[in-house]
Amino acid sequence: MTQPQSPSALPGPALRPVRVGLVGAGPWARAMHARMLAAGPETELAAVWARRPEAAEEVAQQYGARAAASFEELLDLCDAVAFAVPPAVQAELAVHAAKAGRPMLLEKPLGADLASARRVAEAVAEHGVMTQLVLSKRYHPVTREFLRRAQDATVVGARSCYLHGAFLGGDFATPWRLEQGALLDLGPHLIDLLDAAVGPIATIRSSGDSRRWIELTCEHANGAISQASLSGAVHLSRARTRVELFGPGEELVYDTAELDHEECWPVLRREFAQAVRTGRGNGIDAGRGLRLQELIAMAAG
């Protein structure tokens, strides 16, 4: 396996795009990863590999990329790897990518369970590779302003929800989501926001059924209490994500109802390319993914 030349080491007045290999060719790979990486200018979609060669070929052709015949060939064709596959598949292949020294754009959750997530984080640490986690809301300017304001607030309690109906049918009613439910799929997003906005979560417990509706109660290290409602199986006209922070000051509210999620992708792409070039990430990485998976495992009991 060849080691690609660092993008920052190339001659010329302008840096060439980071060549990213995409693992996966399913609905999320097509809707977000492929088109985001191909849009550039910071990155280019160099290659696509999937378990279904015809699906990989279709995505690759659309963006002028190569369809890799194997995961090993994909690694040879790229500077960095992006994953858009089920958690169990990501956890297995990410360990191999880390051993090959490839920076990675990882999906949440990091793995299908805590043990596999820990193996990914350990491989990343052992081989010193840069990682970035696709907690998509974290890349929106409105989210970042909310978290900035939350740092200056005294919070004693919080309420939050992440609700949609994607599990009821359609492209995202995938086997792992239907089996694991909202805690593993939506939980990383909402738990991440509560942990960042209110303060580090010390304990978390749950009630309900993750495949229908699950309630989380979090005790934070600073003494605050937060609650989170999660479901992917309720009929709504659009997904609903809302966080309300309460304390002695004014209520602070984060609501995605009016957000244009398309604003997330250029930020994510730019920060990933910069991190690949410099080897310095933004902190939303495999370590963060493991922290969230530990909290999910705690909630699951």
From TrEMBL:
Keywords: Oxidoreductase. Transmembrane segments: none annotated. InterPro entries: Gfo/Idh/MocA-like_OxRdtase_N (IPR000683), Gfo/Idh/MocA_oxidrdct_glycsds (IPR050463), GFO_IDH_MocA-like_dom (IPR055170), NAD(P)-bd_dom_sf (IPR036291). One of its GO terms (molecular function) is oxidoreductase activity. Signal peptide: none annotated. It comes from the Bacteria. Residues 18-132 form the Gfo/Idh/MocA-like oxidoreductase N-terminal domain. Gene3D superfamilies: Dihydrodipicolinate Reductase, domain 2, NAD(P)-binding Rossmann-like Domain. This is Predicted dehydrogenase. It comes from Streptomyces wuyuanensis.
